[in-house]
Design goal:
single chain, 217 residues
Amino acid sequence: MSSEHDRKNQIGAQRHPSSFARIERMAPLQVALYLALLAIAVMFVMLVAAYVTTRMRSGVPTGLYALPRYFSLSTIVLVISSYTIGQAPRLYAQDDLGSLGRCLGATLLLGCVFAGLQVLGWRELVAQGVPFQGKASSSSGQFIYLISALHVAHLLGGMLFLLVLLLRVLHADRDAVRALVFNRNPYHRRQLKLLGTYWHFIDVLWIALFAVFLFLY
């Protein structure tokens, strides 16, 4: 009987957990992040669909003007920032808070550069005769401003959390005891993981938006 019971337990242990079981094992903060990312994705899909529809109905041919070069530069900057934030878990696992602080600081700086380049891209749109409002404005042009600005707003939200985490790392790095406690706290490891997930999502989202702008502008 016992051997048969053990055999059943072994068979049950080999079964992969269901999707609901995996969700139940997630931390509440992780579930909240995934739901927020889903909501953000749906919102931008709807905005892009509206932009594409408006752009097609306008009848204006594509390629009359080049897409603002600052949008291209900002894409490169954001990809680099995604690489730097991707190094954070490795540095945390190595208990190297000094390098972790520099990594987070570099990511924060790149985020600021991205936001600044977006503003310059808007100014370039105005110089091309695509203002946000006024008689010369168009619905499709307004969508470019709106989509870009909303993306920057979501990036700024991630930058705010990044700044808080950076200050905690710098504070912990000043004292050996605080550094030891910080490195052994699983909550901080989860924070880094969630921050990286959010940042990579924002990066991929902008690349998709940039591709849409590139083909339809």
